[in-house]
Amino acid sequence: MINADPQELAKFGELAHRWWDPQGEFRPLHQINPLRLDWIDAQAPLKGRRVADIGCGGGILAESMAARGATVLGIDLSVKPLRVAQLHAMEVGAENLEYREVAAEALAAEQPAGFDVVTCMEMLEHVPSPESVVRACATLVKPGGWVFFSTINRNAKSFLFAIVGAEHLLKLLPKGTHEYARFIRPSELARWAREAGLAVEQFKGMEYNPLTQRYWLSGDTSVNYLVACRRPA
């Protein structure tokens, strides 16, 4: 069984042509990408590293990591976003960047300990078995390497902010982008990471001000958050 939800794949596939429109449905991804990129690069300098981006979608993060000097493999199971990612990379002349339609678990079986850095951003809350993806990421990274996750906490505040606010009131995201039951508490993600053999190094929250339309990283992990993990050397 492939660890993917056909409805989720179809949902993002239908919007694939809008992926690189900074004012479109994926505007939040464009806005938060510099924050994610700088945070990753500060802890695991990307230049010269081999990176796997799990659930890469249309390639916003993957392409920006390649621009920082990493050799990047972006993978996804939604075909249309992958084609968009490949086309955009060709259009801008991106180097050291490859995309493949393959599951994280399959890539882990094929290339264990094959990457210096593994990123899995805004993806865990869209799959049936997120812990399986966490295990795959832990397998993919070399001893001493870094794994970065980002997802959404599960509590009343995150329901109000990420679904009611972002999807219905502010319309930052299309309705139905997220399903509350699939949100993941930091304690759950930390447990899956430790069970997979990773050391949890840092949590960061990501906040948004709808008046200034600005995102920033903070210590508040109550809604959107990022996790940095490391595989012991």
Number of strands: 8
Give me the CATH architecture, please: 3-Layer(aba) Sandwich
How many structural domains?
1
Q: What sort of overall outline do the alpha carbons produce when their principal axes are compared?
A: globular
The helix/strand class is alpha/beta
Overall mean pLDDT: 95
Structure explained in plain terms:
The protein has 233 residues and is α/β, with parallel strands linked by helices. The chain has a single domain (6-230), classed as Rossmann fold. Helix content is 39%, strand content 25%. It contains 8 helices and 8 strands. The chain has an 8-stranded mixed beta sheet with strand order 3-2-1-4-5-8-6-7. A hairpin with a 4-residue loop joins strand 6 (199-209) and strand 7. Helix 5 packs parallel to helix 6 and helix 6 (130-140) packs across helix 8. The mean pLDDT is 95.
Please tag this protein with its features.
8 helices; Rossmann fold; single chain; globular; 39% helix; alpha/beta; eight-stranded mixed beta sheet; 233 residues; UbiG_MeTrfase
